[in-house]
Amino acid sequence: MTAIEPYELTATQALREIRQRRLGVVELVRSLLDRIERIEGSVHAWELIDREGALATAQSCDASFDRLAHHPLFGIPIGLKDIYDTRGLATSAGFPPWAQRVPERDATTVERLRAAGAIVLGKTVTTQFAFADPPKTRNPWNPDRTPGGSSSGSAAAVASQMAPICLGSQTAGSILRPAAYCGVLGLKPTYGLISRHGIFPFAWSLDHPGPLARSVEDLALALAVLAGPDPRDPTTLNARVGDYLAAVRHPGPPPVLGVIEDFSAAADAVVRDAVLGAVASLERAGARLQPIRLATNLQLVADAQQTIMQVEAAEVHATLHREMAEHYAPRIRALIETGQLVPATLYLRAQRIRRRFREEISAALRGVDCLVMPTVSNLAPDRTTTGDRTFQAPWSLIGLPAVTLPAGLANGLPCGLQLVADAWHEADLLRVARWAEQVLPPLQTPRL
């Protein structure tokens, strides 16, 4: 067994220890459950913990080691954002009338995790229906700051070492932003790479499931299990799956990075300095930088994403809102009711902006491995908000893969470095992220 506590291990490290029989699966699960018991009262990352179910599955793993240890996530505990259907476990989406809603089937993603040997620890807190009403979760770096949203509990649980991997979802910025605010890594894949079947929708053409973790290799480990076509989600039928683990284990030479100057110019000075400092470190390590200026205004892109999200959310929630409007939190209720009033001409104009911006970014990606920019414009603000989604929403709008990794601390709070690649190029994106991860100094765990 290693010198550190089992709960401190990344998923990749834990898998290695388990397969070499230096760590039992029950021992790992107990360590995480004990960690949750000690600190959850100050973080509030979990909606529910399936202690008995997780331990029973862990015991089954230890008993079946010789037969199942080759599975890609054998014995690895996972947290699931509370919009993922889980057989036998309540899935409420943060909506009070659904507190006792227990699905009969797992989401496709959950099926794939279980088949790969993962253990469901429980459900992490989401903002209501994965929108912007502030959650009960606190940022592990400072309890007075937001952890971001909507994958609030998933980011906080990973950051505070209560789970090595958690799943989140992003319609505007809900994987990348909380990951950055909490000092962990998050991956929003190409639209249609991961099935959304069994995940409560928010906006059909914008929703992206994805993992949060503490290392690039853990993101690759999760994506290798989650990615691929699902006949129950037609948007995945043309999914192109890469060899993500090979990419991160052999990251190759320094990359060519397209630095989008518009993002740095719009960021708060403290974030801009931290991220440009990280980019300078990458350049000193051999990365070649190519400055890029956008023709399309960032705020226009954010407005187009907001318009599409409003209209599609209004459609998704039409019946439920009509029957239970009084149970909706204020911000999502306002979004839905505004979306009901948006004229078709405005929705179509937003779609034209979407197409034009996608063409511009396709041109910008020619000749570079990835685009680079801050993940969020600001440090985690107070808990009356989930933060600024302007820097993440463009990639949700046009469906391109993006990853955030820690770029250091500023005023005691994490900053995120965001990398963006072309559609279906997750292997290249993770390769560059792994190369950068080896250059940038790791963050320490927040004190709890």
Write a brief caption for the model:
With 448 residues, the chain is of the alpha/beta class. The protein has 17 helices and 11 strands.
Highlighted features:
Amidase signature (AS) enzymes, 448 residues, 11 strands, 11-stranded mixed beta sheet, alpha/beta
Give your account of this protein's structure.
The protein is an alpha/beta fold and about 450 residues long. The protein folds into 2 domains: about 375 residues, Amidase signature (AS) enzymes; about 55 residues, no CATH class. About 40% of the residues lie in helices and about 15% in strands. An 11-stranded mixed β-sheet has the order 1-3-2-4-6-5-10-11-9-7-8, with helices on both faces. The model has no long low-confidence stretch (mean pLDDT about 95).
Secondary structure layout plus pairing:
Elements: H1 11-19, H2 25-43, E1 46-49, H3 51-63, H4 65-68, E2 77-81, H5 108-115, E3 119-124, H6 152-159, E4 165-170, H7 176-182, E5 185-188, E6 208-213, H8 216-226, H9 244-249, E7 256-260, H10 261-266, H11 269-284, E8 288-292, H12 298-316, H13 318-324, H14 330-339, H15 344-365, E9 370-374, H16 393-397, E10 402-410, E11 413-420, H17 426-439
Parallel strand pairs: 2-3, 2-4, 7-8, 7-9
Antiparallel strand pairs: 1-3, 4-6, 5-6, 5-10, 9-11, 10-11
Helix pairs in contact: 2-3, 6-7, 8-17, 12-14, 12-15
